[in-house]
Amino acid sequence: MARETLLFSDVKSIFGSLKEVMLSNKEKLIELDGIMGDGDLGLTMFTAFNAAAEDFADEPDLGKVFIKAGMAMAKAAPSTMGTLMGTGFMRGGKAVKEKNVLGAAEMAQFWRAFVEGLEERGKAKPGDKTIIDSLDPAASALEKAVADGKSLHEGFAAACSAAEAGMENTKTMIAQFGRMAYNQEKSKTLIDPGAVVGYLLIKTFADYISDSLT
Description:
Helices cover about 70% and strands about 0% of the residues. It has about 210 residues and is mainly alpha-helical. It has one domain: Alpha Horseshoe (Serine Threonine Protein Phosphatase 5, Tetratricopeptide repeat). The longest helix has 20 residues, at about 195-210. The N and C termini lie close together (about 5 Å).
């Protein structure tokens, strides 16, 4: 039977995977961001997750682990997206503070708090063509999975599908933030680079849970 909780070792491994995922997608993110943005997203995300992985907290409280990871990201990559990512992990960490095991319910709480942190810090909402448009559907899918009594594996499979659909749906939206918003109508049909980052985040968690929690 597959294990249905994340432990400290799992979270540490996931951050190592996130570092590698952001490295392997760095050029893709730079290309996407360069169409109407300043083209630094790939480097920013790798810098942020590299810092989190390299300075990983040896701490049984997984909430504190996420908070310290967020702090490391915000310090290493003090750009808009780096700050937002740091905020998301810190807010998510606060939601699961004093937990040393994370199941489906805790992960749903984590990602909902993560999204709320982004909304408050970035003043964005679903539909504004941002990272929120992939992460909010993922958080909702996790919450529904918990309400339906589904497992961690099932919840993240659903969250990954929801994040991918949300990411693709940004092609129908008009940008409200960043340099892309200067060309609002032209931004339509383009995928939002931030939403791609959100999808990569959820997919990395989902892949780890599918492949390693057995």
